[in-house]
Amino acid sequence: MDKIVSLSDEENIPELQKYLSTLTDDQLTNTITNSALKGKKVGTIIKGIFKGSPPSSTAGANRRLLLYQHCIPLCESGDLQTEVAADIIGLLMLETHTLSGPSLATLGSLFVDAIKVGKMSSGKSLELFPTVLTALAACEALSYGKGELSGEEYKKQLINSLCSSRWDPQCVIHLTTMFRDVPLSSEELQFVVEKVLRMFNKLDLQEIPPLVYQLLLLSAKGCKKQVLDGIVGYFKEQDARQEEEQKHGDLDLEVQSIPQDQLRHVEGTAILHIVFAIRLDHELAREFLKGFKVMYNITSYADLCPFSVALLLSVARIQRYEEQVFELLKGAIIKSFKDEQLQQGSKLLQDLLPGHCSVAQMILDTVQNSVFGWDHVTQGLVQLGFFLMDAFGPKPGPFGKTTEGSLAVARTPTQQACKLGGQVLLQGFKMHEPIRGEILEQVLNRLVTKTASPVSHFLDLFSDIVVSAPMILLESSSKVTETFDHLSYLPLATVQGLLKAVQPLLKVSMSLKDALILVLRKAMFSSQLDGRKSAVTGFLLLLKNFKVLGSLASSQCSQAISSSQIQVDVHSRYNSAANEAFCLEILSSLRRCLSQQADVRLMLYEGFFDVLRRNSQLASSIMQTLLSQLKRYYEPEQDLLPPVKLEPCITAHGDQVYLQEPLAHLLSCTVHCLMWLQNTRQSANPNGDDSDGDEEEEEGYRSDLHAILESMTRRMIKCELEDFELDKSAEFSMGSSVGVKNNIYAVLVMGVYEVLMEYNFIKANYSKRCFEEIIELFSRYHKLSEILKEKSGKGRVPSHKTPRSLFSMGIISTSITVLFRDNTQSREEALSVLRSNGEFVRYILSVVVQKIQQLDETGHTDGPDGQNADKTFRFLCDMTSVLMWRYTNIPSVVEEGGKKEKRSSLSHLCLEGLLRIFTTCQQRYPNKMAQLLSTMGWTSKNGTEQDDEGDVVEINYFYIRQFQRALFTQLSGGEEDFNSKEAQLLISILSVLSRQLKPSSQQFVQMITWTVKICKETSFEDSAFCKGLLSLLFNLHVLYKSPVGLLLELCQDIHSVLGDIDQDVEVEKQSNFAIVNMKTASTAALLVLSQVDRVLDEVDWLIARKKSQTASDKLATQTAGRQDPVEKAVTLQLGTLLTALSELVQTALLLGTCTVTLLRELTRTYTILTTLVKYYIQVCASQHGSLPARFEKLVKLSGSHLTPQCYSFITYAQVLAWFSLSSSVAKLLRETKAIPNLIFSIEQYEKYLITLSKKSKVNLMQYMKLSTSRDFRINAATLDAALQEQDDSQVVSASSTQEPKQKKRKQ
C-alpha cells in the first residue's frame, strides 16, 4: 500500500506500472478494502492505481475496470464512513470518460444487475451511474450479442432493462435523483417516469413527499403532464381506498392501510412541493392548468378529486394564476350542476350513463380535509366561497327591485352554486380559526356595500354563522358594532335580515345591545324614510325579545330563535326590572312614530301584535297607545255618521294627496291585540282573582275599545256611500287629486268594513244577530268594491288592483271551514245567514286565493302569525282539506244554476286555491307535501293515518286519481259544457302532484298511460287546454323514456290536419292523438318543436361526451360487430327526429312564429348532424374503424327525407312571405335570418360529409342530391310577372297559382 503511495507521490510512472503489474487482482482489491475501512490514504491509492494503469494498454484498462467493479459494491456495503465513500465515488467519476466502450458496457450492466437484486439501497455509488451512462452514450460502437450497437442504443437498452426490472422500494428515491443527471431522450424519460409512478404504491406513505419532490425536479426535462397526472392519480386512489374503508368500517384490521390524518398530512406536503415547483417553472403551471381546461371543456370530471381541487386552490395563491383557477373552478361547478340537472330530467341519459360525479361534493370534501393543517388551501377556499356567492347570488329584478323571500330549495344550477359558496364559507368558519375574522368582515362588508343588489344569500350565511358559533362571534363583536353604524343607510330588507340574525347575540352581549339602541335612536330622526323604518324594525325586535317578568308564557312564543350554545338566564329576576324600564323607554320612542309617514305607522301597527304576544306585561302601555291613537279618528257623537273621520287620514303636499294614517290597519291591530288579550286572560285566569289595580285599568281600556267597536259596527251599517262622498257620481281617476283622494278614502273604508267583519265574527260565538250584522257590513263593502271596479275599468288601462285584504290568515281559515264543513246542529241557523249569501262565500274564497298567492310570492302573509312558518303551514293544511272537500262534494253543475257567468265559479276558486297551495308547499315547505295531503281526511288501508313512505306515495296517488276523475267528468260532457279554465287548473294540479311520484313507480306509469289515453281520445278545439295537456304529457314522458316516438306520431297528426305544402298532394289521414285538430295544430306544433329542442340538447351533450372520451382515450378500439351504446342511442334519436321533422317540414304551417321556430330547429338539427360527422372524422383518424351501418342509414335518411323537403319548405315560406298581407311576418322572417342560416348549416353538413367520405373510404355523398333551389339567380320572367301583378292590384291573394320559382328578393 505504502509503495503505491510513495511511487505515485514521486511521479515515477514506469516503476508504478511495473509494481502494479506484479500484484494479483486479489492483492490489489484487498489493499483498497483495507485502506478504505481504515479511512486512510484510500484516495491517494486510487489516484496511484489510475496513474499506473494507462487506459491505452489492455492491462491498464482491465485494472481500471477491476477498480470500478470492486469500489462500487464496497461503497454500497455500508461499511465505509460517508466521507470516504464520497471521496472514492468522486475520484471514480473523474476518470470514467477514460474507460473503453466494453468496460463502460460492463459497468452499466453491473449497476443494472445490482439494482435488480436490491444491492443499491444506500444509493451512494448511484452518483457514478449517470457519468457511466453519459460516457457510454458517447461511444461509437459496441459489440452486443453477435452484432454491434451504438453507445446511444446501448444506453437505451440499459435504461429499458432497468425500468422493466424490479426495484427495491428503498432505492426508488435514489434512482429518481440519479436520473436527473442522466441525459435522456423523451422516450427514455417516459420509461423512467412511468416506472417511478408505478413504484408509488410500493412505497411507505412517508416516502411519497420526497419522491414527489424529486419527480418534479425530473419533470424539468419533460413529461410534465404525465408527472402531474400520476401524482394526482395516486392520491385520488388513496382517497378512494380510505373512503371505502371508512364506509365498510374496520372489518379487517390487518388490511387497514393508512391512517386518515397521516394521509392528509402527506397530501398537504405534496401540494406544497407541487406549488413550489409551479412557482419556479411556469411551463409546469401551463401544463397543469391546460389539463384542467381540457377536462372542464368536456363533459366528464373524472380527473377532478378533492386532492386536485385543493391543489388548484393552492395554485390560486400565486397571483398570476388566481383568476384562471377561479374561472376554471366556477366553470366546472356550474357545468357539473347543469349536467346533473340534464341527467335528472331525462330517462334516456340516466339509462345510458352511470351516476354523476359531483364537483360540489369534492369541494366540500376538500373543506373537510383542510382541517389537517392545509393552511395553504384555506385562503383559496374563502376566496372561492365569496367568488361563487358574488357570481351566482340573486340578481336585482327590473328597476332594481329585489324578489322577496329566499326559497327553501335551491333549484337552478346558479342557485345551487351560490348555496355551495355559502356552505364552503360556513364550514370554513367552523373549522379554521385564522380565517374567521376575514370571513365575517367580508360578509358584513357586502351587507353594507351591496345596496343595489339583493343580499339575502349573505344574510342567510351570516345567520347560519351566528347560530352555529355565537360565542366565537362575540369575540369579533366590534365588527358587528361597526356594521350597526350603517343601519340607517341600508335597504329595509337588509336591516330586517341583519337584526333577525344578530338577535341571539343581543341577549348575551350588553355592549352590542347598547350600541344597537344608540344607532336606532339616531335612525329614528333620520331624514331618510327607510332609516326611520329601520329604527321601528329594530325597536320592535328588541321589544319582542326582552321579556318582562310576569309576561304570560304564551304557546305562540315558540318562535324565539335562541342558540343551544347560549346558556345565559336573560330573564332572571334582577334583569326583569331593567327589562321593563328598557321596554317602556323603547315604547315611548316608538310613540313618536305615530306622527310620522303612513309607511312608518304601518310597520308599527303590524309589529305591535307580536310584541304584545311575547311581552304581555306591556299590554297596558300598548293598548293605551292604540286607544288614544284610535280616538283621534273616531267620532264620539253616537248620532253622527260616519263614525270615523277620514279628513285627518290624508295630507296634501302641493297638488299631491298622500295617505297619512292607515286607519284600517290601526283598527285591525287594535282588534287583534284586544281579542288576544281577552282570550289569554280568560284561559289563564278563569276565576278572575287578579290584582285589583291592573284589573281595573285593563277593564277600563277593554270596555272603552269594545264600546267604540260596537258603535262603529252599528253606525257603519247605517252609513250610505254618500256619507263618505263615495257614491257612483264620485270621481276615481288617478289623474286628478280629487280622484286620488277618493281612491284613498275608498280603500280605507273598505278596510274598516273588513276589520269590523272580522271583529264581529270573532265575538259572534255563532249568534245569528252578529252574523246578520256581518252580512250587512259585507253588502256595504261589496257595493263600494263594485263601484271601484267599474270606475277603474273605464280608463284605457284598468288601474284597479284589489287592495290586500285585512282579514288574518287564521280567521280566513276558520271562516271557510265553518262555511263549508261545520255540521253542528245548533249553529245551523246562524251559519245559514252566511252560507245563503253567494257573494260573501265567493269573497271569502277570493281572499283565500289572495293570501296564498302572497305567501307563495313573499314567503309570509300580512296580519298576526303571518311570519310564523309553522302556524301558516297549519292554516294551509286546514284550508286544503276544506277546499278539497268543497270541490269534490259539490259538483259545479249544481252551483252554476244553468246561468253562464263571466266570473269564476266557486269550484274554480277552490281549484285555484288548491293549485296555489300545492305550488307554495312545493316551493316553501318541500318536505311537508305528504303532511299537507294527509290532512285532507285520507286514511291508509289499515285505517291509521299515513306515515311511512309507501303510504306517502299511496296518498299522493289517491288525490291524483280524484283530480283525474274530475277532469274526466269535464271531458265526458259535450264541448259546449266544457269549462276550459277549470280543466286547465286541473291539469296544472296534476302536473304539480305528479312531481311527487317516483318515475320508477307503478303509479307513475299509470299516470302516463292515463295522460296518453286522454290525449288520444279528447278532440275539443281548445288550444290553451291542448297546450296544458301536451306539456303534462311531455314532462311525464321524458322521465319514463325518450319522447322521440311520441313526437313522430304528433308530427304525423299535425301534417294530416293542416295538409301538405304542395296542394296537389293528398296527405294520408292519420289520427294518433285526437287532441290535435285544426284549432290546436299550431299550438301542438310549437310544443313539439320545443321538445325537439330538448332532445337535440341531450344528443348534443352525448356527442360532446363521446368526443371528449375519444380525445382522452385514443387507444380504445372498437369491436367491429358491436356499436357503442351511446353512439347507438344518438343515431336512433336523430333518426326518429329526422323522420318527425320531415313530416313537419311538408306541413302547410301558417307563416309566423311556428315557421320561424321550425326553420330554427332544422338549422340546429343540421348543426348537430355536422357535430356527429366531425366525431366520426375524429374516430376514423385515431382508430381507423369502419363507420357503423346505423350511421350510414342516418346519412341516407337525411339526404332522402329531409334536405330536399327543407328546400321545398324554404320556397314555400318565401312565397308565403311574398304574398303575405302582413309585412310584420315577412319582416320577422327577414330579421331572424332563419332561411340563410338553414342553408348554411345544410352546406356545412355536406362539406364535412365529403371529408368523412375521404377518411372512411365510404361514399356518403351518394345519398345527397344537390338541390336546384340553391340557385340564387333572379328569374327575370317571374319577377316581371310578379311586379306586373302587384301593379294591377295592390292586394294579391296568397292562393295565387303563380310558379313558386322565384327566390329571395334580397339576398
TrEMBL record:
Q: Which residues form the FANCI solenoid domain?
A: 62-278, 377-540, 807-1033, 1047-1280
Q: Name one GO molecular function term.
A: DNA polymerase binding
**Ranges of residues in domain FANCI solenoid 1 cap:** 1-52
Lineage, top-rank taxon, reads Eukaryota
Pfam families, per the entry: FANCI_HD1, FANCI_HD2, FANCI_S1, FANCI_S1-cap, FANCI_S2, FANCI_S3, FANCI_S4
List each copy of the FANCI helical domain by range: 283-369, 554-789
Region (Disordered) spans which residues?
Answer: 1285-1307
GO BP terms: namely: DNA repair
Please list the residue ranges that the record marks as compositionally biased, kind Polar residues: 1289-1299
- Its protein name is FA complementation group I
Organism of this sequence: Astatotilapia calliptera (Eastern happy)
